[in-house]
Amino acid sequence: GIPSLKCSVEGVTKRIQMQVVNKFLKCPFLRAFGGTLPADKITAMAGLCPGLARKGLFPVSSKFPQQFARVLAENWEPPKAAYPPPVANIPRCYTPIDDKMDKLKLEGRYRVFFDIARKVGEFPTAVKHGDTINHNQEPKKCTVWCNNDYLGMGQHPLVLESIIDAVRKHGGGAGGTRNISGTSHLYTQLEDEVASLHGKESALVFSSGYVANESAISTIGRLLPGCEIYSDALNHASMINGVINSKCPKFIFRHNDMDHLEELLQNGNPEAPKIILFESVYSMDGDIAPISEICDLAEEYCAYTFIDEVHAVGLYGDQGGGIAQRDGLQDRIDIISGTFGKAFGVYGGYIAGSERILDAVRSFSPGFIFTTALPPSVIAGALTSVKYLKTENGVELRRQHQERATHLKQMLVDIQLPVVWSESHIVPVMVGEASLCKQASDLLMDEFSIYVQPINYPTVPRGTERLRFTPSPLHTDEIMQHLVNSLDLVWDRLGIPRADQIGSVSFLDEEIDDSDALIANSAFQSWTSHRTSPSSSSLLVSAQA
């Protein structure tokens, strides 16, 4: 509320009164002083106020400041409260947040972070010191089954040596953004190496894979007038947010459904630029995109292709370039995004593509321009890892990795666990209920010293909650057998359905927005269809063994 003026100001015209007094009474700075502001302060404030000084409405040379100070003191009234006073000891602004958190915990979806310490030379084992809820537990040795350091490169001696050497030579941090002193020579070498890995003209390193996707997609979308974006329903959150922030018209096609994608392209604006977004390996189900078919449609409808290879780089292809390299399709992809934080074992993300497109992203992307560059040590470690996995040593590691993944899937199928079988290295085991998934994870850690994180909504649709295992070349037969025996007991203890007992999958009955519905329906249809018809990703039961 604005204080009211109860009397006139003697010697001042009505016009001056209305223009000046009302302006002062609306000023948040003046009102903060109440009715005790002296005349000299009013004069000084009026001289500094851009509105009054510019318009010449305040007669600083007259006696008006003294008159106004008196009138203000007599007539000032505190503004009416915009909000009701808070009840004692109840911070009202937190109530909606608390409600959301209570709902999250009630549904069994509250994320508990385990305090894990890995030790060089002992991967895949680690030491658990506690978690988000219990901070000071007795240290406990455990086997890690959910790490995305797929090949153990994060502890490879050559990678560690290069990191330590870079710290000694270049110090801890980069010292600035890429534009302001942060582009070390190591950056240039790494970007050249990544461009070579993917057969592209150029590459651009970002602070993370998430930032690479969001920044590139949103920037390119904004730079192409009228651009339409076609996105797979199961794309990563970084890609989804890139689409949202681009403010482009978006069209979501059912997961890996080429008929639906073509239908959407046919109904699009034939004159508009288009981008098709998809992943090579989908990290929660482990299935692989039909890249060749997507490229066919992109060429037919003049669309750019943007592929996320974060769960494939280092793991597939002759040099570790991903699924597109493995299948000889790199030349048909316009932009490839990847990460150094998974198979390469370090940190950071990147995109690779034409010099023309990447220069535009470099020049216009806030996510690239306004963030401190990665430390030289991280860049050095990534450079060593990329080079190493290009060699025959990398070929052998990839072979071992695939063998371990296939072996684990078969062992789980043999005990009737509902494994989503795919041609990739991802091993999802379906549970189908959030609280049950959390119980299984806790039981595995508490009684069997096995660490696997429960995967719940919104990472996966409701009703498809799962445990996701990521075997590495360092998970031995003995470690695998311990896991399988433990899972067998946990499934019995908790009464989780086996593969031959699974009926239909249902979602919780509640309102979800359109994007959630698209994601949930796509994954649901994908999973249930896998149970009834063989495909590249299918739910196996022991009858097939």
TrEMBL record:
Annotated GO MF terms: 5-aminolevulinate synthase activity; pyridoxal phosphate binding
Pathway assigned to this chain's UniProt record: Porphyrin-containing compound metabolism; protoporphyrin-IX biosynthesis; 5-aminolevulinate from glycine: step 1/1
UniProt keyword terms in alphabetical order: Acyltransferase, Heme biosynthesis, Pyridoxal phosphate, Transferase
Top EC class of this enzyme: transferase
Catalytic activity: succinyl-CoA + glycine + H(+) = 5-aminolevulinate + CO2 + CoA
Known cofactor(s): pyridoxal 5'-phosphate
Residues in Aminotransferase class I/classII large domain copies: 141-487
Gene Ontology biological process terms from the UniProt entry: protoporphyrinogen IX biosynthetic process
GO cellular component, one term: mitochondrion
One Pfam short name: Aminotran_1_2
EC number: 2.3.1.37
Regions that span the bilayer: none
Family: Belongs to the class-II pyridoxal-phosphate-dependent aminotransferase family.
NCBIfam families linked: 5aminolev_synth
Protein name (record): 5-aminolevulinate synthase
Native organism: Hirondellea gigas
Lineage: Eukaryota, Metazoa, Ecdysozoa, Arthropoda, Crustacea
